[in-house]
Sequence to fold (126 residues):
Amino acid sequence: QVQLEESGGGLVQTGGSLRLSCAGSGRSFSNNGMAWFRQAPGKEREFVAAISRDGDSTYVRDSVKGRFTISRDNAKNTEYLQMNSLKPEDTAVYYCAACVSPSVMTCTRGGAMDYWGKGTLVTVSS
Fold:
């Protein structure tokens, strides 16, 4: 079992930055691929970014490429999402998730994730 807890959400103006953190506990954190998903009001949940177990491979959705960076620190059992140049359309609840698959591409699919955090709200004002 893996427990995940997000932090770092909040209100920011367009063009601003936030860094989300996801602290993991329980089953060995480094055994899991990690990802971020988000769900905007009235919309379906969507994939944002994923990172492999060792951090060497990452995958980011096109709409946030060049603005968002995913990273992890296995020594601290923590995953991060650095978000720069934020836009109002980035407003959503952001969820941290973990998957046991060795393939980072598998961890881009919500249905393949094994563990989820409760989410943290990011609001970008125009």
